[in-house]
Write a structure and sequence with these properties.
With 200 residues, the protein is an alpha/beta fold. The protein has 2 domains: 3-166, no CATH class; 171-200, no CATH class. It has helices spanning 3-15, 31-36, 89-100, 104-107, 137-147, 156-166, 177-187, 194-199; strands spanning 18-22, 40-44, 57-58, 68-72, 123-128, 152-155. Strand 5 (123-128), helix 5 (137-147) and strand 6 (152-155) form a beta-alpha-beta unit.
């Protein structure tokens, strides 16, 4: 998986008020090490105790209810199956059953001696390039992932759209190559805000 995907996920959580840190600073690039490696620990710096639990499908509006999470980012964006291009819910479910459900336990495995300094253990959040939008496939995927210990899904597409919407073309982002790149693309009308897309 490219560092670009990780940069988008990190920037997304940072822009939404989270402290973000890698769980492992280095990992093997072999297939085995790649599948077992954990990615990010995120902690909501403006979390208010006593609020409800976030919905399983996490959008920006739900993040206020998330205190902390282990966010698992895996490179199933560019797999041979071209998951991101799948439109059929049945196709997505079949792919998840074949390639994802069997590995999720390992992806979220971490040393139980590690403490994260929060009252409640961090939730397990999986980054997904796509997710079924129609029933019964949507509920089926949620149920299967919950059985595997996943507490939430965040869509890669929704993260990218959120960042695009947040970028101000009049502001220079010296500390973020990603936001600066999005700013340039927006300045030349190569990407547009999602609200503009909806109106168009």
């Amino acid at each position: 998986m490219s560092c670009v995907e990780e940069a988008i996920v990190s920037e997304y959580f940072e822009q939404n008020g989270f402290l973000v840190r890698p769980l492992r600073k280095s990992r093997s690039h072999t297939k085995k090490g790649y599948e077992e490696g954990l990615d990010l620990y995120v902690r909501n710096m403006v979390f208010r105790e006593g609020s409800r639990d976030p919905n399983f499908l996490l959008f920006s509006s739900e993040l206020r209810y998330l205190e902390s999470a282990i966010v698992c980012v895996r490179g199933w964006f560019g797999d041979k199956a071209s998951l991101a291009s799948m439109s059929s819910g049945a196709e997505i479910v079949k792919y998840l059953e074949t390639y994802v459900f069997k590995k999720v336990d390992k992806w979220f495995a971490y040393d139980p001696a590690v403490t994260f300094g929060t009252r409640v253990p961090p939730m397990h959040v999986l980054v997904a390039p796509v997710f079924p939008t129609q029933e019964p496939h949507r509920s089926q995927c949620i149920e299967l992932l919950q059985e595997k210990g996943v507490h939430g899904i965040v869509s890669f597409k929704s993260m990218a759209l959120d960042l695009i919407d947040r970028v101000d073309t009049k502001q220079v982002y010296e500390k973020s190559d990603l936001l600066q790149t999005l700013r340039i693309l927006k300045n030349f009308d190569l990407v547009k805000d999602s609200q503009m897309d909806l109106l168009g």
